[in-house]
């Protein structure tokens, strides 16, 4: 009997050790991933002088909204330096929003029918869909030079069109790939049932395929939006002054006369909001299972 | 046509020489069948026989490699499913998961662009008939298996179609509900003279519903006929095994002649067979109710041991061993036995069957050859 109790205790203490190790690991991993986020948000409320403290702190000692106000071109609050011209941030947000929304709509308008067709009719066998995916393997920088000359010839450099087209180029393969998987998951017999009910193949697409793949479509749209929102390389090469996306504005805070840390972090915080919203939305939409109940149980 | 399904012109639907392949697998091989107007044609066969593929070819959901689908005297091989005016129950139900039961039922009527009030009336009528009126606003995921199957049946029956295609529509219901549904379906079908092609793996369903039955095996038609023909004159051992519960006993042995009389010889036992049958190896087919237990000494009886026994409703089925094989005897009423008990079994070979060693029917015993 005594032996039994002893082994029970041993097992219990073993379990406790495993649990402690697990929590320590989780804390370390979270610390690594969350540090930049906390640093950015915390820093955005600091005064400029606080950035030069010898013992740097994560959180501001005297929290101030001054960085946000001056970033939007408001009155300087004395401690911040204000590197950028008035209204640049507002234009950055406006341009980024416009480009992200239009690119997302264009991408999905092409990706949804394209991925459905790839999933159901397999044009070109398996090769075409793999070819589309393989564009993702290329580093985007490879496309920059040829695209630059094409856009220059066409005469659309430094216009919205140049970003609509270049973002679309890299958004499409990814979004096609995501939505294709969701279309493939829809039982074929559901679509066949709609056809027998008297609907055309075209109506089947809208009546069954799109509603049942809507979580995939939502996820792909959010990715497309975030890609455009964060994109820096194309914007910095293909545009100059006419179009100013948020990442470009952000870059300007690192100037030759120094870095306006407070404003930089305030703008970075604003720029991060869509990404955080994405993470929250994704959890809700990424759960599949819409087709549950369609087949016999 | 090998299966004597009548001339092609009197059928509502005629399949002629249909071939279908999935990759390298031959799903259908030279399939011919005729479905008549106002009748139920039951397609019976084991899984993998090509039953569902046949239905999908009729519905236009699969395209045959070769052959013709003739519907209302028109070749419709290339006609889109929506233009065929057929209706179908899928074995997987295929209910639309994102819309309510009401909208599932109304789907085909909205394709016909009927008035909303008329659709409502029709949906409520069929829902009442199938006992699903209480669930009209639920999504399919919130229904039980039996309820889903009834919705699937309702969705097909509501459409005013020229031909109804049913793929195992009641296979997943419990026995009680199945009997009710067979009754309901038969009532609907006969009162409205609905033309139906009904796929099932259950011979009893095929016999109770089908006006004609076509038996499929490995993508080929094994036999076509009325339910009586299929039961009384199975063309081969495959059909003999498929029809009947418990299935027909198939006993391999040899036909020998002694003193001018034919005997079926198995494991040293000679069973006298009526009529004149050519000598050679053969298979004796005898239905379980044609084997009787006898008490007291009998010349014709075979002495054997009880291998197992089970109740079959109000009847008893015992298994006996002859040679290597185990065979079934069906007795009226409930009886008790002990395993290993010695019994005497008398073979009533009238209306029994002799098949050749390839399994094709040679003759029905005690009947004129034919």
Features of the shown structure:
heterodimer, A: 297 residues, mainly alpha, MetI-like fold, 2 domains, two-stranded antiparallel ribbon, 2 strands, 69% helix, disordered C terminus, B: 370 residues, alpha+beta, Rossmann fold, OB fold (Dihydrolipoamide Acetyltransferase, E2P), 6-stranded mixed sheet, 6-stranded antiparallel sheet, 8 helices, 23% helix
Structure description:
The complex is a heterodimer of chains A (297) and B (370). Chain A has 297 residues and is mostly helical. Chain A has 12 helices and 2 strands; from the N terminus they run H-H-H-H-H-H-H-H-H-H-H-E-E-H. Chain A is 69% helix and 1% strand. In chain A, helix 3 (88-121) packs parallel to helix 6. Chain B folds into 2 domains: 8-241, 3-Layer(aba) Sandwich (Rossmann fold); 245-363, Nucleic acid-binding proteins (OB fold (Dihydrolipoamide Acetyltransferase, E2P), Beta Barrel), CATH 2.40.50.140. Chain B is built from 8 helices and 21 strands. In chain B, the strands form 4 sheets. Chain B has a 6-stranded mixed β-sheet with strand order 6-7-8-3-9-10, sandwiched between helices. A 6-stranded antiparallel β-sheet of chain B has the order 13-12-11-14-20-21. A 5-stranded antiparallel β-sheet of chain B has the order 15-19-16-17-18, with no helix packed on it. Classes of the chains: A mainly alpha (297), B alpha+beta (370). The A-B interface holds A 187, 189-190, 192-201, 207-208, 211-212, 290-297 and B 56, 59-61, 80-82, 86-88, 90-98, 107-108, 111-112, 139-143, 145, 148-149, 155, 159, 165, 172.
CATH architecture of the largest domain in chain B: 3-Layer(aba) Sandwich
- The percent range for strand residues of chain B is 35-45%
- Which spans of chain B have pLDDT < 50 for at least 5 consecutive residues? none
Given helix and strand content, the structural type of chain A is mainly alpha
The shape of chain B, in one word, is elongated
CATH class of the largest domain in chain A: Mainly Alpha
Distance between the termini of chain A: 48 Å
Shape of chain A: flat
């Amino acid at each position: 009997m005594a032996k039994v109790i002893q082994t029970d205790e041993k097992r219990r203490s073993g379990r406790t050790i495993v649990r402690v190790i697990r929590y320590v690991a989780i804390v370390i991993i979270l610390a690594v991933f969350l540090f930049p986020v906390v640093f950015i948000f915390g820093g955005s409320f600091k005064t400029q002088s606080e950035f030069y403290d010898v013992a740097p702190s994560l959180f501001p000692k005297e929290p101030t909204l001054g960085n946000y106000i001056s970033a939007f071109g408001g009155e300087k609050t004395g401690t911040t330096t204000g590197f950028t011209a008035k209204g640049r941030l507002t234009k950055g947000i406006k341009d980024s929003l416009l480009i992200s929304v239009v690119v997302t709509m264009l991408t999905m308008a092409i990706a949804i029918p394209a991925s459905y067709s790839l999933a159901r009719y397999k044009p070109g066998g398996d090769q075409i869909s793999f070819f589309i995916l393989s564009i993702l393997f290329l580093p985007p920088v490879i496309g920059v030079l040829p695209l630059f000359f094409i856009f220059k010839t066409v005469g659309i450099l430094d216009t919205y069109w140049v970003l609509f087209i270049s973002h679309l180029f890299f958004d499409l393969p990814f979004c096609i790939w995501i939505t294709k998987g969701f279309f493939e998951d829809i039982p074929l017999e559901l679509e066949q049932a709609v056809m027998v009910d008297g609907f055309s193949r075209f109506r089947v697409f809208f009546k069954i395929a799109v509603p049942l793949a809507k979580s995939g479509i939502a996820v792909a749209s959010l990715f497309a939006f975030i890609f455009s929102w964060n994109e820096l390389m194309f914007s910095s090469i293909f545009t100059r002054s006419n179009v100013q996306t948020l990442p470009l504005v952000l870059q300007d805070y690192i100037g030759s006369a120094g870095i306006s840390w407070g404003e930089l972090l305030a703008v970075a915080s604003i720029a991060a909001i869509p990404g955080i919203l994405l993470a929250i939305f994704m959890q809700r939409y990424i759960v599949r299972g819409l087709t549950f109940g369609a087949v016999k149980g | 046509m090998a299966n004597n399904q009548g001339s092609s012109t009197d059928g509502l639907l005629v399949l002629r020489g249909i071939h279908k392949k999935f990759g390298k697998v031959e799903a259908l091989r030279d399939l011919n069948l005729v479905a008549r107007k106002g009748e139920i044609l039951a397609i019976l066969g084991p899984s993998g026989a090509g039953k569902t593929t046949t239905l999908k070819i009729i519905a236009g959901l699969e395209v045959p490699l070769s052959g013709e689908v003739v519907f209302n005297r028109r070749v419709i091989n290339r006609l889109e499913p929506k233009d065929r005016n057929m209706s179908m129950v899928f074995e997987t139900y295929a209910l639309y998961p994102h819309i309510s039961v009401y909208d599932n039922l109304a789907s085909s009527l909205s394709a016909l662009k009927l008035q909303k009030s008329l659709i409502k009336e029709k949906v409520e009528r069929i829902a009442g008939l199938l006992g699903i009126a209480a669930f009209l606003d639920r999504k399919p995921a919130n229904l039980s298996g039996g309820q889903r199957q009834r919705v699937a049946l309702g969705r097909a029956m509501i459409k005013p179609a020229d031909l109804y295609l049913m793929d195992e529509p009641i296979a997943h219901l419990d026995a009680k509900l199945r009997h009710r549904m067979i009754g309901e379906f038969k009532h609907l079908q006969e009162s409205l003279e609905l033309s139906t092609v009904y796929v099932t793996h259950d011979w009893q369903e095929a016999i109770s519903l089908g006006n004609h039955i076509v038996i499929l095996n490995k993508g080929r038609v094994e036999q076509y006929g009325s339910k009586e023909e299929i039961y009384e004159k199975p063309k081969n051992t495959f059909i003999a095994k498929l029809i009947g519960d418990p299935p027909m006993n198939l006993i391999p042995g040899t036909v020998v002649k002694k003193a001018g009389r034919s005997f079926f010889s198995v494991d040293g036992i000679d069973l006298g067979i009526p009529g004149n049958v050519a000598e050679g190896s053969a298979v004796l087919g005898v239905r379980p109710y044609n084997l009787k237990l006898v008490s007291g000494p009998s010349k014709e009886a075979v002495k054997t041991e009880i291998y197992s026994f089970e109740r079959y409703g109000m009847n008893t089925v015992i298994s006996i061993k002859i040679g290597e094989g185990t065979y079934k005897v069906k007795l009226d009423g409930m009886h008790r036995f002990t395993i290993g008990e010695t019994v005497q079994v008398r073979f009533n070979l009238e209306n029994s069957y002799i098949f050749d060693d390839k399994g094709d029917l040679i003759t029905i015993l005690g009947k004129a050859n034919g």
